[in-house]
Amino acid sequence: MSRNALLAAVAVIALAGPAAAQNRVTIQWQTPNLTEAQYEPIWKQTIAEFEAANPDVKVEPILVARRDHWTKFVASAQARQAPCIVAVDLTTAAAEGYLRPMDDLWAKEPASFRDAWAPEMLSAAKWEGKLYGLPNWGGTYAEVYNRELVEKAGLDPKNPPKTWDEYLRWSKALTGPDRWATSILGGKTDTTTRVLLTWIWGNGGEAFNADMTEATFAKNPKSLEAIKFYLGLFTKEGVASPAPTTTNYLEQTVLFAQGKIATMRNAYWSIAKVIGDNPAIEGKMFVAPMPSNIPNAPTLASVSAHSISQSCRYPEQAWRFIKFDMDKKWAIERAVKANWMPLRRDLVNEPELKADPMLAEFVRIGANARSYPLPHPAWADIAVNDIVDAVQKALLEPARTDEIFRDLDARVTRKLRQ
């Protein structure tokens, strides 16, 4: 915050007089991202400008290490002392009664504000039909290519593959001695699940029925076909890097930065990671929609949402801050400076975003995104354990893929119905 802006903030508070100071309330704000260096200048400026415009409210950031974030939140929620504003595992927290529904606050907002969020994006912040959060940023997945490797293979960066057949042709051209077209993510994190879902959706399949009471990985023929094609890039075609069962986000981005793979399916934040690993690759990447077998196939956007805890004594003031933080200004700041994709759908033509062609393309692709995580309290366990286990088994025993995913359907369906 500049010296002039700080002086202005002090002046506003002073002019508000003793009454405002006496009635000032404090709301706490806890998200695991407050401890991340690239975000710190942004959130500090956000708080300063909000308090200048709202002298009756003080925002207290709660800095918690990511590994302790959920545990600390649950302990404080059970003691009815949770911070007013939180970003947590929303469906689990809502199902446990730790969050306050926000429908009354949302309904009071003008249509111009509410229309900035697509219904599909808002679905990630709902539980049993009620809104428990407002999505503010996330990771939109797309296909990222190494331009030099693409051109060296005689391929045209201006005409990236649109279908799976075209992608396979590119993959074979991009694979050579000690180099592969891509990586299959099969490691023990939910990034394995995120990428698998993009392949399923890209074939017109669904991994679950509409009300999340049944898993359909094998039951849905389009889903099973997508799973076999994707994993087959390693088990059948040989165009994916070795050791997929231990390949996670970190390993994938390192391979891409080293030029060992020519394409990766990843979120926008991976660009900064790759450049950090290999500064020479900056300016040598391009991004395109993920190849698919259906028109206008959706991508996946992981979602972080602001929620209000059930124990918050000042929900109106908390909502005021949430709205302030959701403003276009801060969405653009987070995208440009922290590589966090905005989840508002009305930013495609903003000059700051259009100035960076890769960022602008990610924003354009993200306009047709489905939200993640999926809305069920058991989702974290299903995404990290059940689905990943099935992927790993199918990579090791591809002849049993049908059986493995039928077993997955049965096991996950039981969990969904408990």
Describe the structure.
The chain has 418 residues and is an alpha/beta fold. It folds into 2 domains: 3-132 and 303-354, Periplasmic binding protein-like II (D-Maltodextrin-Binding Protein, domain 2); 140-298 and 375-417, Periplasmic binding protein-like II (D-Maltodextrin-Binding Protein, domain 2, 3-Layer(aba) Sandwich). Helices cover 47% and strands 13% of the residues. It contains 19 helices and 11 strands. It has helices at residues 3-22, 40-53, 66-78, 90-95, 103-107, 111-114, 119-122, 147-152, 164-174, 191-201, 221-235, 249-257, 269-277, 315-325, 328-338, 351-354, 357-366, 379-396, 401-417; strands spanning 25-30, 57-62, 85-86, 126-127, 130-131, 134-146, 263-267, 285-288, 299-308, 341-342, 369-372. The strands form 2 sheets. Strands 1, 2, 3, 6, 7, 8, 9, 10 and 11 form a 9-stranded mixed sheet that branches. A hairpin with a 2-residue loop joins β4 (126-127) and β5. α10 (191-201) packs across α11 (221-235) and α10 packs across α18 (379-396). The longest helix is centred in the N-terminal third of the chain and has 20 residues, at 3-22. The chain is globular. The relative contact order is 0.16. Residues 9-14 have low confidence and may be disordered.
